[in-house]
Amino acid sequence: MPMEPGGIIPTTRWPAWLGAAALLITSWIVLAAMSLQARAGAELVAIAFPPWWKAERAFQATASANASIVRMTAVPTVLVVRPDRDDGLRRLYAAGAWLTLDPQAIAACFKANDDLGAGDVRRQ
Q1: What are the pLDDT digits (tens) for 33-46?
Q2: What does the alpha-carbon distance between residue 77 and residue 54 come to, in Å, rounded to a whole number?
Q3: Which of 38, 68, 78, 93 could form an S-S bond across to 82 if both were Cys, CB 3.0 to 4.6 Å?
């Protein structure tokens, strides 16, 4: 069938800058994830549980993984812990942890008066 004159089919196109912005955001997220990631064999790690969990559930999950809570953060489901030396990170993930992070990388989340007396992230 021949097209009638003036019968232009409208097309929707992404703005030219959207692909570059998506690439920039994705690369920033990947770099942040790599720099915040806890190192293998780290003595202390910050762990993040699902944000809808209450603090008590995060404590129970940490205890079930045989990890010691060292410090709480301003976010109740992000804790600094000392994992068990025998496969402690794997147990934390099995208990429900979403992320393990370098605790010094998230130091801005710490409250000034939340020390549980079990140690401190910073060596004095």
Answers
A1: 777 777 666 688 88
A2: 7
A3: 68
